[in-house]
Design brief:
- This protein is an alpha/beta fold and 476 residues long.
- The protein folds into two domains: 3-47 and 155-464, Alpha-Beta Barrel (TIM Barrel); 52-149, no CATH class.
- The chain has helices spanning 3-10, 26-32, 53-67, 89-98, 103-108, 116-129, 139-151, 156-167, 201-214, 238-246, 273-281, 320-328, 334-339, 367-380, 398-407, 424-429, 432-442, 448-464; strands at 38-43, 180-185, 217-223, 256-259, 286-289, 303-305, 312-314, 345-348, 384-387, 416-417.
- The chain has an eight-stranded parallel beta sheet, with helices on both faces. It has a two-stranded antiparallel ribbon with strand order 6-7.
- β3, α10 (238-246) and β4 form a beta-alpha-beta unit.
- α1 runs parallel beside α11 and α6 runs antiparallel to α7 (139-151).
- The protein starts with a helix and ends in a 12-residue tail after the last helix.
- Pfam families: Amidohydro_2.
- This is Amidohydrolase family protein.
- Residues 242-462 form the Amidohydrolase-related domain.
Length: 476
């Protein structure tokens, strides 16, 4: 299928409605009709068959490595033992089994035959050595907490139901009893972590469509330009995935698209132009990762297409995080918006919590500049938004966040969205996920108008309004 054929197919009658409100499911329509309904625009429901075993192992060990370092303002990292005599038994079992020292070491020499059963057995050994108490007070308990809530769930529906029951904002005073509409964001690791997944992207689309029929969920399709390299007849080709997700004639209930440049591509890749053209024409909202560099490509030589040219360039940087910082930088989207100024884009995580520090703590990564770029794009393009997902779990930046909102009242307060980044934030924060979410809500108790914007009306503008008044000119 050529790009022109793809666009023609999208424009066929009743394939994709040009009116966003006509693309929502009956469940979302019902939730939206309820008084005081609210939104969480950043939720993940993918389960273990949507990632590979090696990635989980890498993530698990990486969290332990990072947990050794204390976080800012006394916030204890989830896998840091609070007492010196306590040992993270699960990670110790993994370390003894797979002989790693750093994330990069295990990535360069990954186990070739690891299975989910191996991982489960390792956790069970750890559990037998260190019986858990009710609350998470150490690294070993945090590890098992994540395992029991994530790895033992066998479907996206199980994870979503756990979210609604135990972690959604509607469990917190002030929002109890309200209808919650969630944006469920798909991830596409594209074999990035050296192993296929059991549940292909095509099958995952079917899972998300099932969720959308049963719950007030707006699914977002994962986009990766490298899927254009698949055989054009393959169901895993980007165009075929897009049509399967959005084609109403084939029961497609997807509502938006998700980009994750940190996995090794530029958003101004020329192969993405047909996607942007359709997203702008049909007002399909985009969310792009614009936060930390933890989940990212480990490739040392990253070649990408920039500024919609069929020429490759090498991503600069001496370390993995420096290279991925470049890919995550909202500046990569400036050329996209110049060419497609009426796109609706949510810069997820608002640049990372470090964008709200008083000063940069990395000599090679300017997070404060990220925030300035996003604010400038908001001034230039009415379709630019930002959620504060994951970053809301960092109370030490609340003051700077509120200052940003109050200093830019004319625009920013109308562009901030509420999102949690469940279940990824749960992995990193454990039970403190709910505590931090409650504290974040309390920031707006004295300003109900701002609270309504962040938890409801801004999301409705991002999701459902038509953007058509932006000039096709460079952002100054």
């Amino acid at each position: 299928m050529t790009p022109d054929q793809f666009k023609t197919k999208c424009r066929e009658y009743n394939v994709i409605s040009p009116q966003p409100l006509l693309r929502i499911s009956e469940k979302v329509q019902h939730a939206k009709s309820q008084d005081g309904h609210i939104y969480d625009v950043h939720v993940h429901t993918f389960h273990k068959d949507c990632i590979n075993e090696f990635y989980f192992l890498l993530k698990m060990l990486g969290e332990r490595t990072r947990g050794i370092q204390s976080l800012h303002d006394g916030d204890v990292a989830p896998f840091t033992p609070r007492k010196t005599e306590e040992i993270d038994y699960a990670v110790e079992e993994f370390r003894n089994t797979y002989h790693y020292s750093t994330e990069e070491d295990i990535y360069e020499n990954p186990p070739t035959d690891i299975t989910w059963k191996d991982i489960e057995d390792t956790f069970e050994k750890a559990h037998s050595r260190a019986p858990l108490i009710e609350h998470i007070d150490s690294g070993r308990e945090a590890a098992y907490y994540v395992f029991s809530r994530f790895l033992r769930k066998n479907s996206q529906e199980e994870i979503l139901k756990d979210f609604f029951k135990n972690f959604a904002v509607t469990n917190i005073n002030g929002f109890k009893g309200k209808s919650l509409i969630t944006c469920a964001l798909m991830m596409d690791f594209y074999n990035e972590f050296k192993g296929p997944v059991k549940r292909s992207l095509s099958k995952q689309i079917e899972d998300y469509n099932t969720l959308a029929r049963a719950y007030p969920v707006l699914p977002f399709l994962a986009i990766d330009p490298r899927r254009m390299d698949e055989d054009e007849d393959s169901e895993e080709h980007l165009f075929n995935l897009f049509l399967k997700a959005f084609d109403r004639k084939k029961a497609g209930l997807f509502f938006g698209v998700k980009f994750y440049p940190a996995l090794g591509y530029s958003p101004s890749d020329y192969r993405l132009e047909p996607i942007y053209e359709i997203c702008q024409e049909f007002q399909i909202p985009i969310v792009t990762h614009c936060g930390g560099e933890i989940v990212s490509t480990f490739s040392k030589d990253i070649w990408v297409y920039e500024d919609f040219k069929q020429e490759k360039s090498v991503v600069p940087g001496d370390t993995r995080k420096d290279r991925v910082f470049y890919l995550n930088d909202p500046k990569r989207w400036e050329s996209v918006l110049r060419k497609y100024p009426n796109l609706k884009i949510n810069f997820a995580h608002f640049g990372n919590d470090e964008a709200f520090f008083d000063e940069n703590i990395h000599s090679s990564r300017d997070y404060l500049a990220r925030k300035r770029t996003i604010l400038n794009l908001m001034k230039c393009y009415s379709g630019v938004f930002a959620d504060f997902s994951y970053a809301f779990t960092s109370p030490h930046v609340y003051g700077s966040f509120m200052k940003t909102l109050n200093e830019n009242t004319s625009g920013v307060q109308d562009r901030i969205l509420f999102g949690t980044d469940f279940w990824v934030a749960l992995f990193a924060k454990g039970e403190r996920f709910v505590t931090h979410q409650t504290a974040f809500i309390q920031l707006f108790e004295s300003n109900p108008n701002l609270r309504d914007k962040i938890f409801r009306t801004n999301a409705e503008r991002y999701l459902f309004e038509i953007v058509e008044d932006n000039p096709a000119s460079p952002c100054k």
